[in-house]
C-alpha cells in the first residue's frame, strides 16, 4: 500500500505540534497565523501541546469581552474559546470514552482533563510504590508510556530525555487543575505535600490508611489544603484515637476552622475511640464546623458508646448537619441513656438537629427498645425526610413506636421510610399502613420488603398505595397467589399516585399477572413495576400485553426476569418491538432470551 503524501497544512501542523511540545517559551508569530489555520492546529494537538498553546496565548487573543482590545473582533474570540473548549472535550473523550456521559455539562473540560490525568498518574504511581522492590522517591517515578501517548504523541514517547516522564512534572504543571483526588496509603508520604503544593484540593479520598506514619504525612497535606478542602473521606482505613485527633486538629488553626468542610465520611474502616476520653479535637470539630452537612460513619465498627458521644455532641451544639449515616455498625443501645423527658419535653432545652434531613441506621442490630428511643429522638429532628431502618430486628413493637410517633406528629416531614428486613409481621404492618392514611403529608417511598407478612396485608397495602404512598417496595413479603388475588380484589378505586411498585420474589404465579393487568390501567402515573421472580407462567405475558395496549399510561419498565413466561425467542423480539417507551423496550424479559436485550441493569 502506498501512503498518500501528507499535505502542506499537515506538515505545518506537525512541526508546530513538535515545537509546542518541546518549548517552554511561546513560539513567535504562532498566534498571528490566519485564524482557519490556527483552529486547524488546535484541533490536532495532543494534551500537553494544547496546554502550552493555551498558556502562552497572548492575553489579547482571549475572549475577554471587557478588555476592549483590538486583536480580533468579539465573534472571533468567542469562536476561539469554543474551539479550545471543544478540543479539550475531544481529548477527554478520546482518552476516557466511558466517562464522558458521567460529566455534568457545562463543564470545564480542561480542568477535568488534567484532574483525571493526575488521578491516573497517582494510581499508577501507587502501584509502582507498592512493589516490594521499590525504593526510590515518589516524585521520580516514571509515568508510563500508556499515559504519555495521550499527553505528548507517539514519537515523543520514545524520547529519553523528555521532561514529562517524571511524576513530579505532571503534578507541578497540572496541579492547579486538581480539585478532587483519591490517594492510597503508599502515597501518604513526606513528598506528597510538595507534589500537591500547587493544587487547591477540595475533595480528598484516602484509602488504606492504617499507620500513624501515614496519618502524620496526611496531616501535613491537610494543613496545606485546609483553606480549600470541603470533603474528606476515608475508606478501608484504621484510625486510632490519636489519628482522628491529629486529623481533626489539622483542619483548624488556633481554634478557627478556615475550611468550609462540608462532608466527613469514614466507610468500611475501623475507628478506635474511647468514648469516655474522646479527643478534644474531634469533639471540637463536630461542634464548631457549622458548614458540615454530611457526616458518615458506615461499616466502621462503631459501638453504642461512641455513637452516643457523637450524637449528643451534635445535639448539644445544635449542629447544622443534613445527612447522618451510621449504617452497618452495631449501635444498639446508643439512645438508651438519654433522658427523653428532659430533652424532648421542654422546648427551653433548645437542643435539636433542626436541619437533619437524612438518617441512615441500616444494619445496626437495633431492637424494639432502640426503636422506642428513636421515636422520642425523632422529635428532635423536625426536618427529617428520609429514615432508613432496614436490616434491624425492631419487630412489631418497634413499628408500634413509630406508629405512636406518627400519631403525635401528623404533619411529620418524613417522606422516605425503609423498613426492609425488620422482622415485622402482618399485624404490625397493617396497623402501620392504616396510620399512614392519617398523615397530612403522605409518604413518597415505603419499603417493607423482606418481612414475612403473608397474604393478610393485601388490603392495607392497596389502601396505602391508593391514598398515601407513591412508591412501594413489597418484594419478598410472601404474598403468594392468595395475596395477589386479594390485592386484585381490593383494587377498585385505582391509584392516582402510584409511581413505582416492587412486587418481586412473591411466588404469585398467574395471579401476579392478573393483579398487574388490573393495576396498570388503573394507575395512570405508574412508571416502573418490578415483577421479577414470581413463578409467572407463559400466559401471563399475553394478559399483560392486552392490558398495556388498553392502558393510556406512562409505564417505562416492567421487569419480568426470573419468570418462565416466554415460549419462543421470536415472541421475545416481537414484544420488545411493540412495547416501547421513548425507544426503549418496556419489558425486561427472562435472561435465557435476553442476551441481546439492550437493557442496562445499572442505570
Ligand atoms: C525512568 O526513566 C529513565 C529514562 O527513561 C530511567 O533512566 C530511570 O531509571 C527510570 N526511573 C525509574 C524509577 O524507573
Ligand atoms: C447550614 O446548612 C445549610 C445547607 O445544608 C447551608 O445552606 C447553611 O449555610 C448552613 N449554615 C451555616 C451557618 O453554615
Ligand atoms: C453488638 O454489640 C453488643 C454489645 O454492645 C454485643 O453483645 C453483640 O454481640 C454485638 N453483635 C454483633 C453481631 O457483633
Ligand atoms: C437504605 O439503605 C440501603 C442500603 O444502604 C439502600 O439500598 C436503600 O435505598 C436505603 N433506603 C432509603 C429509603 O434510602
Ligand atoms: C426493594 O427491596 C429489595 C429487597 O430488600 C431491595 O433489594 C431493593 O433495592 C428495594 N428497592 C427499592 C427501590 O428500594
Ligand atoms: C426490587 O427488589 C429486588 C429484590 O427483591 C431488587 O433486586 C430489585 O432491584 C428491586 N427493583 C427495583 C426496581 O428497585
TrEMBL record:
InterPro entries: Leu-rich_rpt, LRR_dom_sf
Superkingdom of origin organism: Eukaryota
Record flagged with keyword Cell membrane: no
Record keywords: Signal
Signal peptide range: 1-23
PANTHER family: F-BOX DOMAIN-CONTAINING PROTEIN, RNI-LIKE SUPERFAMILY PROTEIN
Protein name per UniProt: F-box domain-containing protein
Organism for this UniProt entry: Capsella rubella
